[in-house]
């Protein structure tokens, strides 16, 4: 059976795995984005707090994904839970770092003007600073999503959802007729999903970032 015949015979299962993979990455990125922006907003005014937040989230990336998931299994068990926790932690650094950079890059004169007309600090943050910091934040989200696409495949080690199960089944049966087809299908599926997500982020950027800021 060649690769195209394999895809035709397993397309339903591959589509299900791809949807689960995309869903896991999307949901974890939503959580990582909310947490990352909150951390960035809470720490960007202080040099040491911003450095601490960046260093703490960067430390997570030094832990191999397989090791982190393995450490989580005795605590939260197999399945979705270790996948969600690991992916969320890995997705924090690009969002936190870019949120801090973006918020620090807002023109102070605009903030002073907003203060002068009586806007409170939360109002300034929500209506002035975060909208202006959105382009670098979106870039951080794009980077984190691409990274999580690959890491999510390792979640199959903990019986997590996604295309990693296809890859692991192929690796576990190397030498059999369809082993390489399984690995190739899972790998190409992740690449296609990553490209689709990135295209979606480009569209979101065009819809949410004013042309003057993009320029």
From TrEMBL:
InterPro entries from the UniProt entry: ABC_transp_perm/SBD, MetI-like, MetI-like_sf
Topology versus the membrane: Multi-pass membrane protein
CC per GO annotation: plasma membrane
CDD domains from the UniProt entry: TM_PBP2 (cd06261)
Biological processes, Gene Ontology terms: glycine betaine transport; transmembrane transport
PANTHER family named among the record's database cross-references: GLYCINE BETAINE/L-PROLINE TRANSPORT SYSTEM PERMEASE PROTEIN PROW, OSMOPROTECTANT IMPORT PERMEASE PROTEIN OSMW
Family per record: Belongs to the binding-protein-dependent transport system permease family.
Entry protein name: ProZL
Organism from which the protein derives: Streptomyces azureus
